[in-house]
Amino acid sequence: MRRTLLRLVTVLGIALLAGPFGPGTTEKAQAATSNGKIYNKDGDIVMAASFNSGLHYYHEHENASPDKPNFFQVMDKCDDGESPVVSWTIEGRAVDGWSAEDCTGGLLPFKLYSVETGYKESVMASVQWHLTAKDADGNQLGSTNVKNDWAGSYTDDGSDLYTHASIYRDEYDTDGDTLVLTIVPTEKAKGLDVAAIVDSYTAQIWDHVSDRLTRPGTVTDDQTESLYKQLWCHVRFNAYGILGGHTWDLEAERPNLDWELVTEDIAIHGCNWGTTEDQGWYSRPPIDGGDPENLAPMVDAGPNVSIDEGSAVTLKGTAADDGGTPATEWTYTPGDNVDEGAVCTFADPTAPRTTFTCTDDGTYTVKLTADDGVNQPVSDRATVTVRNVAPTLDVTVPVDWDVHRVENEVPVSASFTDPGGNDTHTCKITWDDGSTSNFPAKESRCDSSHVYDHAGMDTVSVEVTDDDGGKDAAERMVVVYDPRAGLASGAGTLDDGLGFTALAKYATAGSTAPTGAVKLSVPTATGRLTMVSTDLDWLVITPDAKAAVKGRSATHGFLGYLESGRFRGVTWPLSQGEIPPTAPSYDSTPRASWDLDAAQPKPLRTGLTVIDTGWLPGLPQLPAPLGDTVGNLLDTLPALRLDLTGDTAARPAQRTSMSMSR
What we know:
Blueprint: E1 26-27, E2 33-39, E3 45-52, H1 56-61, E4 71-77, E5 83-90, E6 96-99, E7 110-116, E8 125-134, E9 140-143, E10 146-151, E11 153-155, E12 162-173, E13 176-185, H2 187-191, H3 198-212, H4 221-236, E14 248-251, H5 259-264, H6 266-269, E15 298-300, E16 305-308, E17 312-316, E18 318-320, E19 327-334, E20 344-346, E21 353-358, E22 362-371, E23 378-387, E24 392-397, E25 402-405, E26 409-417, E27 425-430, E28 436-440, E29 448-451, E30 456-466, E31 471-481, E32 487-493, E33 499-505, E34 515-524, E35 527-532, E36 535-541, E37 547-552, E38 556-563, E39 566-573, E40 586-587, E41 602-603, E42 606-612, H7 630-634, E43 643-646, E44 656-661
């Protein structure tokens, strides 16, 4: 009868032999059935093999002869020019092998083979094996790594109560396994009401099997007693009017229950009891049936694959059966690293080859189950690694060079998309004045606003981050002016030959555009280009005495950056737009930032700059000792170099920066 095993870590400590055999490196066995698969470069399976230890296959599927223990089941893709070869060695025996020609011309895409090793000994023995694909000339086309397993012990020297018995390894947990004693009872043992003689029958079977099979020394006395109680339960099971299965399987990992629980709850636990920790019972009793001529299907979930979240990945599953194509179904299990709420879908969950899509990153186990309608369903698993995809941000407001008056709200409007439908997001806006806004995204948006306390050219950074650390960001530069910020003026030359004069201020506290004039004499390859402003668009004067003025002449746009003893001039044809292009026709500091804080104006070769951060009507007098107006002073250039910065009693917030160079 088929058992669904509880999964617990093994305490038996049976070691696998790790010596290499054949090509490649060695791998641990996968419980009682170790598997090997070969794929082509496109990820499609070419052939597969599995080793069935002891009576494991007979116990699982019923539809095989108990006289065929320790055998391989091989699946080969037909008409691909590749032939399967299985090679193996069993402890104490020489290397054996089996091969078959490529199947051709059949109605089915795959063919199944049953390959007997012939091992029918009373002691478990180590097995090493591998599967190889070869062409018609015997050239190797591919191979699995070497698999380590155990050939189960076996006896067919039965009695009137059982016919065959075997001890083999079987899965009890993903991290361990257990020893299983499988006994094939006779009709006498499983068909009579043996309530009165259960103790006698159990002892007869136990003693007979114990004499013929060697139990590994790692089985403890407590586990031995549990095995005996399980056997007693199987013998006693018939008295409840439920037909017993074709095998009695006894797992060493099952806890050693009190006899009271074993004898009184048989109809509930069906001799397959759970752990002492969870007080669990199995409600599915042993079952019977099956045609011994029909082999169980073979199934392959395909190779492990990776994909971005929200995208579809192709699962290249395969299922084959000696009676035709079996029915198949996909299921999945999210791993521990998957966030709650993640959802995955199969394009067609009943098709072996289909696509798989998930709304969140992490590791998922997909399982393909094949059912031929005769045997117990069989399954295979693959791992799908879903990678996180960062959100994509779109900032619509502000746009670069947006102009705002100080103390007015500067809005930010930004949306984002993310293929990870299960992700959550946070927004961060850095306003470039020392303040930052952090808040959860709402309806895939990062919208906010900010009020600047003083003028500046501010680079606003908008960033969205998903809950897995993926992020996207964008920057927009905004111009914030203060019409109360005073005056910027200067005249001089730079080392590259640029000549300039500039004078700009806001006439009133309510002005939206500055008054003044800017003249630039720009060196060119053919001489000099001189332009005089027709309009000034804006003027920015920061509290730390940096200034920028933007305007246009009849044919060109221009920017002037002023600091104490420094100037940067930028010009471009107005045919290229109202804001400077990436590569303007002239820039005294090429490729520097447009942001005033990082504009990098050049030192003056000759000249003067004056930046007054406090606003008064009219053109102010310069501080002592110069005692003259800026206009008159410009006429005296070149004269001397002097930097002055000072405050006046009448304007405590005013800051004046002045520099003359010769």
